[in-house]
Amino acid sequence: MKIKHIILCMAAMLGATATVHAQTYNDTVRTNTWSVYVQGGVGGYGDMRGEQFVGKKYIAPNAAIGVKYNIRPWVRMGLNVGWTYLKDADKGTVTSTTTTPNYQVNGRTGTLETVGVRLQNRNMTQMLGADLNIDLNIMDIWHNRRAQKFNLWVGAGAGFMKGWNTYSNTWAFDANCVAQGNDHMNIYSHSWIESDQVKHNPSGLYIPLSLSAEWDLAPKWTLGVIGQYKILPQERSYMPKSMWDAGLVLRYNFVGKKQGIYSNKSKYLKALAALDAARMAQENCEKSSANLQRMLDEANAKNRALMADNAKLKNQPAPEPVVLEGGLVYFQNASSELTPEGQQVVDRVAKAMKELNGKQVMLIGSANTPGSTTLNMRLSKQRVQTVKEALLSAGVSESQIAETYAVGEYGMTADEACRRVVIVVK
Predict the structure, then answer these.
(1) Which of 287, 369, 410, 426 could make an S-S bridge to 291, C-beta 3.0–4.6 Å?
(2) What whole-number distance in Å separates Cα of residue 73 and Cα of residue 32?
(3) By C-alpha distance, which of 396, 364, 381 is closest to 13?
């Protein structure tokens, strides 16, 4: 197995991994990005607490603005500020009659009958609320789907709502009394209108639930439809028990010029083809630690056989050949310290390199996948440096260490065998 082939295989693995991470539209547009939005529509509400109204409930207009932060393609957090105008009124008139006996009309006694007709009964409330919320993207279950621009979000949160309520009544009254005797008839008649208006300022907590379907018109612009249901669990007079609304949402996404690489269909299909090719390359080149050790063993065995054959061709007794073999130096979890076994590998390689002064080696350090990408890259660099310093301390010259590479967790798995430095003979 040629060393160049090993390096090309590892490069293909790294390229495949990088392609998988870079070629997803949502990974680019919806990872660590902000967006602002406006929405508007109509809605309604459940029963109003306090005064019980059984009249007609009018459709309520509503509007909202907000900001969202996309943490990953499947989750985002945000702040929403919304306004809704609620009102209701009686479907018809309400009549009430009261009777007052022994009512005096010009010194005569009669019965006063008062008839009241309610002409108006209105309850009008403006609600302003603000809430913090979190949304989950159902469509990201299929992360590598073709329809990356369509997303379906479900959300929940908690907020505070303030209301400005005006409750008004208007009544028309007719009062009539006839005091009639044998020699008299006294009549009393009076009509008037009474109006009253009471204002309240209720407030309380609410729980918003939402479902929105959104489509990217372009990487920076998103249009969608949204439905929301707000639960108001606290008992507050002149506040509804629940509210609902539905409408449109227009979103502006703060993404850079290099983000949203699939806004063009041809680029999108081209990127998908590249992604498929990268996956095939990764599948073909991905090797376990055992396979890598096998390749090194085969290369070392061929090297020894060639040296033995060379000695035989010269008709000389074959001396014990000095063979420079590569090797694998393994490390403990989250450590860059040499183990006794690793020191033995370094000592063996160093001894051969001092006798074969013209030979060079290449060091390739890696880490397994648990832990952050940044930490694993730093750890692989430290491991390469540890092996390099150990070789130099053992007498190997600086010029014999041709190249060093730190690949972090790229192309690796969670297997502990990925915590290593590969010593490759050039």
Answers:
(1) 287
(2) 9
(3) 364
Q: How far is CA 292 from CA 97, 268, 392, 424, in A?
A: 99, 36, 25, 11
Reported confidence tier of residue 18, pLDDT bands at 50, 70, 90:
very low
Element of type H or E holding 250: strand 242-254
What's the per-residue H, E or C state across 245-309? Answer: EEEEEEEEEECCCCCCCCCCHHHHHHHHHHHHHHHHHHHHHCCCHHHHHHHHHHHHHHHHHHHHH
128-169 per-position pLDDT tens digit: 999 999 999 999 999 888 889 999 999 999 999 999 988 888
Residue with tokens 């469509």, as numbered in its chain: 139
DSSP state of 411: T
* Runs of H (alpha helix) within 120-256: none
Instruction: Determine the Cα–Cα distance for residues 41 and 11; give it in Å rounded to an integer.
Output: 53
CA angle 292, 294, 298 (to 5 degrees): 120
8 Å CB contact between 205 and 234: yes
Are 80 and 160 in contact, with CB atoms under 8 Å apart? no
DSSP calls for 58-115: PPEEEEEEEEEEEEETTEEEEEEEEEEEEEEE-SS-EEEEEEEEEEEETTEEEEEEEE
Task: Write out the two tokens for 156.
Answer: 């929940």
Helix (H, G, I), strand (E, B) or coil at 405: strand
pLDDT digits (tens, 9 = 90+) for 51-87: 655 667 888 999 999 999 999 999 999 999 999 998 8
CA 420, distance to chain mean position in Å, is 34
Contact in structure between 373 and 333 (CB atoms under 8 Å):
no
**How do beta strands 361-366 and 401-406 pair?**
parallel
**Confidence label for 38 from pLDDT (cuts 50, 70 and 90):** very high
Residue 406 CB neighbours (<10 A)? 21
H or E segment and range at residue 378? helix 373-393
Residue type, 27: D
Torsion of CA 97, 98, 102, 103, to 10 degrees: -80
